[in-house]
Structure formats: structure tokens, C-alpha cells
Design brief:
The chain is of the alpha/beta class. It is built from 16 helices and seven strands. Strand 4 and strand 5 form a beta hairpin. Helix 2 crosses helix 10, helix 4 crosses helix 15 and helix 8 runs antiparallel to helix 9. The protein is elongated and about 160 Å long.
């Protein structure tokens, strides 16, 4: 082989080796890419697993932990307000120190029990010494020297039913039909009889009111009531009770229901929220599909205290727009975008929702307790400080509240937004923390609305508290069978929660409405309905809750 041939063979071998090396490099690069992808996938799975663990721990905390959102100081934990104070000083604003008053139990006033029981019927059960009984020690004669009260008890007397027959007296004119009378025909005149809420029925205002009270106040579904009425000797099927509620709403209570909405529209500050309801026989929807109950609640600053429940097939913001067509004030809600459709209002968002997001982002240990020093805990502390300010100024006038918020809450907010911006720039695998930060940033405009007016609350808790009885009872009765039933539920919850907001005896109030409205002539005189509103001064004395433990204790 010539030198040229050897050189060519060598070059060919080198090229072959370089090609093999390149192929191997490509394989290695591909394997490295796969390893990187697998590593990223593993990291993603690790984060997902961690988030799942945190979700499970949070769920366990909600089920078995304390329900309060208040902050608990942990011994040795960094004081998280320092960041707020530091940032506030950087902004050139002096941070007001908020002190929490320690809770002290108010001692019960003497005689509270006696005052509470004063209005109840009292029976005395006396035990006497038999005649002829002698001393148990010496056998001597006994002489009664006095009496003493051993104890005071409250006896429960089960409910009783009674049959009431309505008898109408009939009179005959002695002149009509006689010779020479102006009226040649006999005339019979009947005594005036009140119109019942449901003619041709065994029902009475008290019976219907009790059925409504049991379901819409006590949360007892018709199926359970059916068994209880049978125990008392009355066969009252669940479908009959449901029909009573629907008919009473359609024929008598609905005008009052819409009147409450009219009054709410004239308020300056309203709360609003929505919750789910299942309606089985909704046109165009499968059984079990979700519909919604919208709730409007007057703010604590308003002269009238009322709630309005409205049934809708959807959660579309057009419903809120329709309901609030005549309202032009402040609306306190969560961040649901559907409320953007409501015209000529000023939105104010709930800080309790923001706090809730940060609480959910706080990592928990295996014992279900919060891990100290987290960013979620820092965010919660800023918001908790805002609520402390509100607690301090709760008894001030609205103008004074506005001023104090500028002095105390404004620096806290400035510090909080600075903290949010700084924290958002940090890398984190905590998806819930990211969600909380994004939520706060996106809603900053509406979260600061409460600074504008001292009447505004910083949370939507009042509306949520109004919804809570509905949500609790829903677990028992589960669904509404028809849209008519769902609408009747909305009407009755409106009357019940509005009555409770005005400290009324709900049963007596419903009984009064069912007895009086059918005989009121409101169709000819619609203004009469104002006399039946839950805050009306015309309501009879028995509709008020004059004896409660709370009022007596004051």
C-alpha cells in the first residue's frame, strides 16, 4: 500500500470515528434532554404532591381545626408586623400601633334567670309533710314553721293540635219579600268571615306558619315534618306542605317580597353574594344541575335591615344587573366579575376573602399546624391589622371612621401593596400563595374603596352570615323539586331572614302575615303592604322578641 493509500485510509478511519463520536454525542444530548425533561417532570410532580399534601392538611384543618380566621401568636415566632411598620416608615407615614383589648368575660347580672322566666306561666308543685308524721330522731310531734323553694325548673309541654270549626251566622230580613216591601224577594245576610290563606283546606295561618318555621328557620325538611305531624295525630303529606308554601307565596306573600327589594334599592350601601341550589325539574337542564340563589343584604349602616333571596337558573351577571337596576350606591361583594355588569354602582370588595386566600397558602406541618415564618402568614397579618383597626373604630361616627382609616388603615395598605409587589417578584412553588398575590393585585382598586366612606364595611361577612342558614338547611332538604318550589324558597327565606334581622319572632310574624294579608285589600291599596314589612312600626306586639336571654342580659 502506497503512502497515499495509507493516508487516505487513515483519513477515512478518522472521519468514520468522528461520525461515530457525533452520533454518540447526539445520543448523549438526546439522553440529557430526556433527563432534563424527566427532572422537570419529577419536580413538577413533587410540587403537585406537595400541593396535594397541603390541600389535604388544609381540608383536615377546616374539618377538625378551629373555625376562626384570627391570628394566633406562636412563641418564638418572628413578629410579622415589623415588615408592615418598616415599609410604612419608608413611605414616610407614621404607623399607628393597634392594641387589641384582652377579652374579659362579662359577669352575668344577678336575677337574669328570674327576669328571663318572668313571662312564662308558673305552676307551684308543693310537697307537704303528712299529718301524723313524727320526728325521725325522737318521735316527737312536728310543727310546720315555713316553706322553702328547692329548685326552679322549666317544664316542656308537647305541642297539641285542635280542630276549629268556622260557623257563620245567617239572618233573614223580616221586611224583604213581604207585601209592600221595596225588595219583593227574600234577603239572607251572612256574618263576615275572615278569608283564609288557603280556602277549601284544613290549613290555618298558625299551621302553615309552623310548617314554614320548621323548614326555613329550623332546617327540618318536609319528609321529617311529615313523621312529626303524624305523631301529633295529623296526616300531612310532604307534597301537601310543599304545595301550601308555593300557593301562599304566589297568592299572598310575593307582593311583599318585591316590596322589600324596592326598599333595598333605595339604600346607599348593599351587600350581595350568591350560592348554589339544585332544582330537579328545570326546563332545559338535567336533574341535579346547579342553579343559583342570589342574596342582597342591607348594610349595617342602613335604617332598614332586610335580606332578599332570588332564584335564578344561572350565575350570569345579568341577574345582578336586573335586580340592582334601581340601585346607585356602594355594593360590597367578592371579586366575581359578573357584578361588573351592574351599572351606576361603586364596587367595594371583601377583605375577608383576601385573608382567606392567604390563610389557605400557609404551609402546614404533618400535625396540621401552621409552619412559622411563611409569606402567607405575613400577608394574613397585614390584613389582620386592618381588621384590628376596624375593631378599634367601630363605635365612632361615619365621618370619624373615614378620618381614622386615613390615619391608620392607609399606611397599612401602602405597606401591604409594597409587600405584595416585593413578594410577587420572588420565585415560589406555592401555587396558593401565587393565587393570593395575584388576586390581591388584580382587585386593588376595589379593595381600597372602603377608605372613601365610613359607612362601608371591609368585609362581606354580613351577607355571608345571612346565607349561612340557607346553606346549612340545604344539607338537609338537598334540592328544590320544581322552579316554583325554588322561587317559594327564595320568598320565604327573604321574609324569614328579614324578620330575624329585625329581631322578630319569625313564627308569629309569618302567622300574622298569613292571617292579615288575605283580608287587607292590598290590591286596591298597595301602600298597605308597607305596614307588613318586617321593620314596620305597625306590627303587633306579639311579633317582637321581647324576652330573649341576650336582651335580658343587657
Amino acid at each position: 500500500m502506497t503512502p497515499q493509500e495509507e493516508l487516505a485510509a487513515l483519513r477515512h478511519l478518522i472521519e468514520k470515528q468522528q461520525k461515530e463520536i457525533a452520533e454518540k454525542d447526539a445520543v448523549i444530548e438526546k439522553q440529557n434532554d430526556q433527563i432534563e425533561k424527566q427532572g422537570a417532570q419529577l419536580e413538577k410532580q413533587r410540587i403537585q404532591i406537595e400541593n396535594m399534601i397541603q390541600a389535604l392538611l388544609q381540608a383536615r384543618k377546616k374539618m377538625f381545626g378551629a373555625s376562626t380566621e384570627a391570628t394566633k401568636q406562636v412563641e418564638g415566632q418572628l413578629f410579622l408586623f415589623e415588615e408592615a411598620q418598616k415599609l410604612a416608615k419608608q413611605l414616610g407615614v407614621e404607623q399607628k400601633k393597634i392594641e387589641v383589648k384582652p377579652y374579659t368575660r362579662t359577669p352575668r347580672k344577678p336575677g337574669v334567670r328570674a327576669e328571663m322566666l318572668a313571662g312564662l306561666q308558673t305552676e307551684v308543685e308543693e310537697y307537704t309533710i303528712p299529718e301524723g308524721e313524727t320526728c325521725s330522731k325522737c318521735g316527737g310531734e312536728l310543727k310546720v314553721i315555713g316553706k322553702r323553694i328547692v329548685r326552679t325548673e322549666v317544664e316542656f309541654e308537647p305541642a297539641k293540635l285542635k280542630v276549629r270549626q268556622i260557623v257563620q251566622q245567617v239572618a233573614k230580613c223580616t221586611v224583604c219579600g213581604t207585601d209592600g216591601a221595596d225588595n219583593p224577594n227574600c234577603h239572607f245576610q251572612k256574618a263576615a268571615v275572615p278569608i283564609p290563606p288557603l280556602p277549601h283546606s284544613l290549613s290555618t295561618p298558625s299551621l302553615i306558619a309552623q310548617v314554614m318555621y320548621q323548614k326555613f328557620v329550623m332546617g327540618i325538611p318536609f319528609a321529617r315534618q311529615e313523621r312529626d305531624w303524624y305523631r301529633l295525630g295529623l296526616v300531612l303529606p310532604r307534597n301537601v306542605m310543599a304545595n301550601w308554601g308555593i300557593r301562599c307565596c304566589q297568592e299572598w306573600l310575593e307582593p311583599l317580597y318585591w316590596r322589600i327589594l324596592e326598599k333595598l334599592a333605595a339604600c346607599g350601601v348593599l351587600h350581595m353574594d350568591e350560592t348554589r341550589i339544585q332544582c330537579n325539574k328545570e326546563a332545559g337542564k338535567k336533574a341535579g344541575s346547579e342553579s343559583f340563589i342570589w342574596v342582597i343584604r342591607s348594610a349595617a349602616c342602613e335604617e332598614i335591615q332586610a335580606a332578599f333571596f332570588y332564584y335564578s337558573q344561572t350565575r350570569n351577571g345579568d341577574t345582578a344587573k336586573e335586580l340592582l337596576e334601581n340601585f346607585h350606591g356602594y355594593l360590597v361583594t367578592d371579586a366575581y366579575s359578573g357584578y361588573e355588569k351592574v351599572e351606576r354602582i361603586i364596587r367595594s370588595l371583601c377583605w375577608a376573602h383576601v385573608r382567606r386566600y392567604f390563610i389557605e397558602s400557609i404551609p402546614l406541618g404533618n400535625n396540621g399546624k401552621e409552619l412559622s415564618g411563611s409569606k402567607g402568614a405575613e400577608g394574613r397579618e397585614f390584613i389582620h391589622l386592618l381588621f384590628k383597626v376596624e375593631q378599634e373604630i367601630k363605635d365612632l361616627s361615619y365621618e370619624e371612621k373615614k378620618q381614622k382609616r386615613q390615619e391608620a388603615s392607609r399606611p397599612i395598605l401602602d405597606a401591604f401593596w409594597s409587600w405584595v409587589e416585593k413578594t410577587s417578584a420572588l420565585a415560589t412553588t406555592n401555587e396558593k400563595l401565587t393565587k393570593a398575590l395575584v388576586y390581591a393585585q388584580n382587585q386593588k382598586k376595589y379593595l381600597e374603596t372602603f377608605l372613601e366612606d365610613g359607612r362601608l364595611p371591609i368585609s362581606n361577612n354580613l351577607c355571608e352570615a345571612t346565607i349561612r342558614p340557607f346553606a346549612t338547611a340545604r344539607r338537609a332538604w338537598l334540592f328544590a323539586d320544581t322552579p316554583k318550589g325554588a322561587k317559594a324558597n327564595a320568598i320565604l327565606y327573604t321574609l324569614v331572614e328579614s324578620a330575624r334581622a329585625n329581631q322578630l319572632n319569625v313564627f308569629e310574624y309569618l302567622k300574622y302575615l298569613l292571617a292579615e294579608i288575605p283580608n287587607s285589600g292590598y290590591l286596591e291599596h298597595p301602600q298597605i303592604l308597607d305596614e307588613y314589612l318586617p321593620w314596620s312600626k305597625s306590627l303587633p306586639e306579639q311579633c317582637g322578641l321581647e324576652r330573649t336571654i341576650k336582651s335580658v342580659a343587657k
